[in-house]
Structures are given as structure tokens and as C-alpha cells.
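Session log. Operator J.P. requested a structure for one protein chain; no other inputs attached. Running the standard single-chain path with C-alpha cell output.
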Amino acid sequence: CKPLLRHFALLSLMALPSWAQQDSQRSGGTTGNDDTRTIILDARSTRPEPPVVFIASAQAEVQIGLERAEQTISLKLKVIQGNAKTLSLGLRGDGEVSEVQEANLRSWSVRTQGTERFLDLQVAEGVKELTPIITLRSPKLKLPTTLDLIHLAPGDAVGFDSMVSLTFAPRVEGTVSRA
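Structure written below.
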């Protein structure tokens, strides 16, 4: 059951002709001391659902090996406003999402829109906070190479922060050329 929102409008009318006075008496209008009339209009409508507003914070641990880069992201999501059904985060860089674990997720998917990719998380009803663990993998590497590391981006989040820690396997060296 959706709550009803009541709107009232007050109109003051001056010097009504006699036919209007008769109509206002039939429709529930009132007469003031100075021959003014007040008509009350009662309009009902349902309150619109507020838009979904959420924030996200990601802590990524990246293991860069001889054949590929694999990372585990501990994500914290908090719905500030609205009833979330789907929370969308951006995906940047080369690679794929291989797993998302969170008890309050119904499902997850990767969506492509134009040249951009998004990780869509379908949230269980009524959930306001989530802490999914996300596993990402790069394509197979052939060293030496330059890698555009796959990572999360804000997407639809109004607040977003991300911290990435890199660990290199023995016999692998690397530098960050752009952050």
C-alpha cells in the first residue's frame, strides 16, 4: 500500500455572481464576512519513489604473475536513499570479472553500453549495505608488456573511492605509468 499525498489549494474569489454563489454552496465552498468565497480542492496522488543514491569504497589486492594479473576486491556499498534493485559500477581496463560473492546479491552481470562496461549487482529486497568480494582477471600476458589493469570505477555511485595494492611474483618487475 503506497502512502497517499494530500494537496490542498485555497482560492479566494471576489464579487461572485449569484449563480456562482449557488454553485459554491452546492460544492462545499464557504462565505467569508466580506462576501469573499473560499473553495477547497482536495487532490490525491501517490508519492513517487525517491531515486537510488549509493556510495562505494573498494580495496583491491592485485597479484601480477608471469601469465596474468589477478585481483581480489573487497567492496563496501551503502545505499543512502531509495530502494535499490540494481547497483551499477563501471569497469575499466583489460580483463574480466570471474566471480562476485555476497549473500545479499540475487545475481550479477557485466553489461556493455557503447564502449563502456558496467558491473551490475542485483540486490536482494530491502538491503542497504553490502560487502561483496569481487575477483577480476587480466587476459593472458606475454612479458614484457604494458597492461591496462582492470579496475572498478564509480558508475552510478555518487561517492566512490578505490585503493589498489600491487604485488609482483618472483622474476616479475613492474612500474605504474598512469594512475
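Operator note: Helices lie at 18-26.
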